[in-house]
Amino acid sequence: MAGNLAETWNVRTLPEAQSDLDELPDPVRAEALAAIEDLAYDPFPPGSIPMRGYAHRYRIKFYSNRYRIIYDVSQNHKTIKILRARERRDVYRGQ
């Protein structure tokens, strides 16, 4: 984690994303939760990619690049909204 507490962002996990996290195997979930926690200090970490067709939506890879976290960033409110956390093959369905 980088930064100090004065620079933290509010991270909200939507119910759909929480369901995704709950279904992940333990080691995958642990890595996802660590990545989400790190977003509170840096919403644009190395490897974060803006998603085409969305103004404020990004994705990051985790767990050997097999999984993705999809999230929205509101810079005005310093808020990050976690939308999905799934395997790459499934995460983009319905986005």
Feature tags:
95 residues; alpha+beta; YaeB-like fold; 5-stranded mixed sheet; 3 helices; globular; disordered N terminus
Model description:
- The protein has one domain (9-90): YaeB-like fold (2-Layer Sandwich).
- It contains three helices and five strands.
- The protein has helices spanning 15-23, 26-39, 88-91, and strands at residues 10-13, 49-50, 57-62, 67-74, 79-87.
- Strands 1-5-4-3-2 form a five-stranded mixed β-sheet.
- A hairpin with a 4-residue loop joins strand 3 (57-62) and strand 4 (67-74).
- The longest helix is centred in the middle third of the chain and has 14 residues, at 26-39.
- It is globular and about 35 Å long.
- The model is unreliable at 1-5 (pLDDT under 50).
Instruction: Indicate the multimeric state.
Output: single chain
CATH topology title:
YaeB-like fold
Strand fraction: 25-35%
Q: What is the 3D shape?
A: globular
* Span between termini: 29 Å
- Given as residue ranges, the uncertain stretches (5+ residues, pLDDT < 50) are 1-5
Short précis:
Helices cover 28% and strands 31% of the residues.
Task: Set down the secondary structure blueprint.
Elements (H helix, E strand, L loop, with lengths): L9 E4 L1 H9 L2 H14 L9 E2 L6 E6 L4 E8 L4 E9 H4 L4
Parallel strand pairs: 1-5
Antiparallel strand pairs: 2-3, 3-4, 4-5
